Amino acid sequence: MEHTGGKRRDAAANRQAVVDTAIELLAEDPDAGMAEIAERTGLGRTTVYRHFPNRKALFEGLAEEVIRQGNSEIEAAVAQDPAVSAVLRAAAAMNVELGMRYPFLFAHQAVTKPALQRVSRRGGDALTDFLAGARERGEVRTDQPLRWLMAAQLAISLAMIGDLLAGRIGREQAAPFLGETLIAMMAPR
Amino acid sequence: MMAREEQRRSDAERNRRLVIEAGVELLARDPELSMQEVADASGLGRSTVYRHFPNRESLLEAVIAAIVDGAREEIATAVAGGDPEDAVRNLSAASISLALRFGHLFAARDGASATYEAFKDDGTSPARRFLEAARERNEIRSDLPVGWLRSVIQAVTFAAIDEIETGTVDEGTAIRLAGDTVVAILLPA
């Protein structure tokens, strides 16, 4: 039994090492491939492919990591001020921050967008959970499904990161503009 | 003599138009446009097609220009009404409809950059002109820049396309959801 537990701990540690390395490498080069990630991890290709058999699986692992990092910020924001507008302003700032820290999120949005959506729908995404509750209390518009609200907010947040990276919007304006945009789209009708 | 010359010229114009129309229709379905396919679809011979367009590149350029002209016309028509909410909703619906027909041209390797360059906002696009004029009239919110509002419309369009393509909602529902979202963001609170 002890042996299995150790193995499992190793596997979890290896998996995390792959995720951390992938994030690091993709920050340097958004086009880095599976082979390069395996090489940089130093775990061998077999181990890497056991955890992430393909790019899609890897990006899902990265999406989980990004959402996990965002969760603590959303939880802190809710604890500080649970008003929808306050939480959405915090979420906007967080999305901008995550987008700048992890440029592969925008560069590979054809892959990262569905990955982020799949992960957040599986549960464990603090923003989705908060908005679901707020929607039930009538503090978020109820005439649209939560799934659409989340899909649209993700697309709009990625668009802001794109405008920011392209220099169309300044760093100081990005979070407030995105915040007001999300507040307007979520407001009860 | 004159009559024959005029006849010849109008035949040439008609043929050129037929070739371009066939090209637009084919390109909407398959980005790998070939001269032979266009010749077949236009009902004209290969030699006629080549007389107007010496190579695939020149044909592709003319077809993309025609698509862009058509798109601008559709957008201009969509925003022509007097009511700002209708205009914003129609603008959103028109961009979804255009993206459904021509969106893959952006993804296709061949001709993608030309399409993108052609569609890129050059400051004279009917959508931008409409948004700027509507903002002058205080019909849309003035605390967010027009460039960002265009990015929002684009992001919501892509979110709607995703929902249609994954079979989450039908086209009519996606158009309604996107319209509601864009109206909520663009119109003053």
Keywords:
heterodimer; A: 189 residues; mainly alpha; globular; B: 189 residues
Describe the model:
The complex is a heterodimer of chains A (189) and B (189). Chain A has helices spanning 2-28, 34-41, 45-51, 55-80, 84-101, 104-107, 109-121, 126-136, 146-165, 171-186. Chain A is mainly α. In chain A, helix 1 (2-28) crosses helix 2, helix 4 packs across helix 7 (109-121) and helix 9 (146-165) runs antiparallel to helix 10. Chain B has 189 residues and is mostly helical. Chain B has helices spanning 2-29, 35-42, 46-52, 56-78, 84-102, 104-107, 112-119, 126-136, 146-165, 171-186. The longest helix of chain B is centred in the first third of the chain and has 28 residues, at 2-29. Chain B is elongated and about 60 Å long. At the A-B interface, helix 9 and helix 10 of A face helix 9 and helix 10 of B.
Task: Present the secondary structure layout.
The complex is a heterodimer of chains A (189) and B (189).
Chain A: H1 2-28, H2 34-41, H3 45-51, H4 55-80, H5 84-101, H6 104-107, H7 109-121, H8 126-136, H9 146-165, H10 171-186
Helix pairs in contact in A: 1-2, 2-3, 4-5, 4-7, 5-9, 5-10, 7-9, 9-10
Chain B: H1 2-29, H2 35-42, H3 46-52, H4 56-78, H5 84-102, H6 104-107, H7 112-119, H8 126-136, H9 146-165, H10 171-186
Helix pairs in contact in B: 1-2, 1-4, 2-3, 4-5, 4-7, 5-9, 5-10, 8-9, 9-10
